Amino acid sequence: MGDALLTSVLGAAPLNGPGPLFLLLLALAIDAAAGDWIGRVLPDPAALAQRVCAWADRRLNRVERGKTARLLRGALVVLALVLAAVAVGLIVERIGAQSRGWLLELAVILAALRGRSAWARVRAVRRALDKGGVAPAREAVAPLTRRHAFSLDEHGIARAAIEAAAKGFARKLVAPVFGYALLGVPGLLVWAVVDGADTALGHAGVRHERFGQTAARLDDALNAIPARLAALLLALAAPFAGAKAGGAFRTMMRDGAKAASLNMGWPTAAMAGALGLALGGPHRDGGVVITEPWIGEGRARATAADIGRALAVYAVAGLILALLVALLLWGIAGL
């Protein structure tokens, strides 16, 4: 009885279709091949949660409310999203247990996986730098960074794009894979809605200091393991960018905790070590200079070619992730 339950949860094929790990591996392959197209067809649960939070922010986060009231309202918004994600996830899994119901589960996984889309958005920045120069590249990188994009020069744009690649790999590929492998569709959807809530509400500043606190803290908690796993995968992929994995590991361990973000410094540091760059650093927001530490000890004058190398590291790290899922599936099937 115990072995049957284990194989059902971890990936052996159920009576009516493929097991979860096989579905995950299939989704990773489809996402890698056509994820940017699929992303335009299937609704993104993180984007849906972001829109809900933006609406709640306008309606509930009012300056005349006290700090405690704003904290509680923000927490209730996030709680409602999490409960809805769990409910929908359980329904999808129940349908998935029926004949051909696994197709719905596969579609939900593909909707939440945005690895190829994140990769393609960074690639668009490189193409803009190569073909159009700084002005179109600023427009391309603006949605990928919280920095003031229109104050960035060519090297700042390249660094922001490379940082976005590292963070996108962690948040849009590794984290949803981890959530699904651990807790199935409910875990996948909970991660997606928390990611969207953090994007909408987890900003520094007075407005979201209380209302967005729950979203930011929950995002930090859920991303603690995936971010570090993503950093390890990027470090393992470093030789494919002409660097040594050991150097990426050292940079990750030394500088991973330097960033303002509790978790995103780890994949950023691994990418900096893999490419021999210094990422992060001070930047301008209008007329104000925002002081942030440098991550990595290489050159800061990143170029469009370095964005291409970052995309290669991203792709190889994604292949390693898929290989780990395949090995896990093979190991479970052999039980």
Automatic annotation (TrEMBL):
Q: Which GO terms describe its cellular component?
A: plasma membrane
- Its predominant location is membrane
Query: What's the gene?
Result: cobD
Q: Name one Pfam family in it.
A: CobD_Cbib
What Gene Ontology terms for biological process does this UniProt record contain? Answer: cobalamin biosynthetic process
- GO MF terms on file? ABC-type vitamin B12 transporter activity; threonine-phosphate decarboxylase activity
Question: Could you tell me which InterPro entries the record lists for this protein?
Answer: Cobalamin_biosynth_CobD/CbiB
Keywords, A to Z, come to:
Cell membrane, Cobalamin biosynthesis, Membrane, Transmembrane, Transmembrane helix
Question: This chain belongs to which protein, by name?
Answer: Cobalamin biosynthesis protein CobD
TM spans, by residue?
71-91, 97-113, 173-194, 225-243, 311-333
